[in-house]
Specification:
Blueprint (H helix, E strand, L loop, with lengths): L10 E7 L5 E12 L2 E6 L7 E2 L7 E3 L5 E4 L2
Parallel strand pairs: 1-6
Antiparallel strand pairs: 1-2, 2-3, 3-4, 5-6
């Protein structure tokens, strides 16, 4: 499924790093689409926690869990 098909507030398992390559987190929360990209936040961070996925990003629902994973 595409990112455009998941509900707002959905959790996505996606390892995030900053521009220095330092790990920030393992999950993000999808908030809404903003044109061709999404507005997501990295779970557990209070500052500089915004990240973006393309609106055509493929995802799959993890069976028995309440989150999605990226499809490469």
């Amino acid at each position: 499924m595409k990112l455009t098909e998941i509900p707002k507030g959905s959790k996505i398992k996606a390892e995030t790093t900053n521009d220095k390559g330092e790990k920030l987190g393992d999950f993000i929360t999808f908030h809404h689409l903003d044109g061709m990209y999404s507005f997501c936040t990295v779970d557990g961070l209070e500052k500089d926690n915004v990240c973006h996925l393309g609106n055509q990003q493929e995802l799959k629902k993890v069976e028995g869990k309440d989150y999605y994973e990226l499809v490469e």
